Amino acid sequence: MSIKIIKIGTAGILLAVAFVAEAAPVYLECTMTDGQKDLTWNVVTDEANGTISYSIPELGTASKYPAVFSPDKVVFSSMEISRIDLSFKRTSNILGDVKTDVGQCKLATAPKRQF
After folding, report:
1. 52: domain CATH number?
2. How many Å apart are CA 79 and CA 45, to the nearest integer?
3. Is residue 74 within 8 Å of residue 65, measured between CB atoms?
4. Can you name the residues that pair with 81 across neighbouring β-strands?
5. Over the stretch 25-58, which tens digit does the pLDDT of each residue have?
6. Does 3 reside within a domain?
7. How far is the C-alpha of 45 from the C-alpha of 68, rounded, in Å?
8. Who has the most CB within 10 Å: 54, 57, 70, 86?
């Protein structure tokens, strides 16, 4: 009887490890124009916590937002990243003037950390 408990426990641990591996943050490097030049957006999607964060080094800005993760896209604030082709879209509405900027992302390597 104790052998069965050990087998069930091991299966549960393996299932938990598989879930954690699947939920790891994904790092992206995206490019989108600001109307004058291309800007690099360093993006981290965190599906497990339902957030997305980004920094734009050239502008000295960084933000973190709640995000909706669907099978084909991630939506946050006024932006969207395709999970299919990694296209990046930002829509702005200023006094009824709707503008859509389009960019492209690629997978990036997670930074090596010291702590």
Report:
1. 2.40.128
2. 13
3. no
4. 74, 88
5. 999 999 998 778 899 999 999 999 999 999 999 9
6. no
7. 10
8. 54
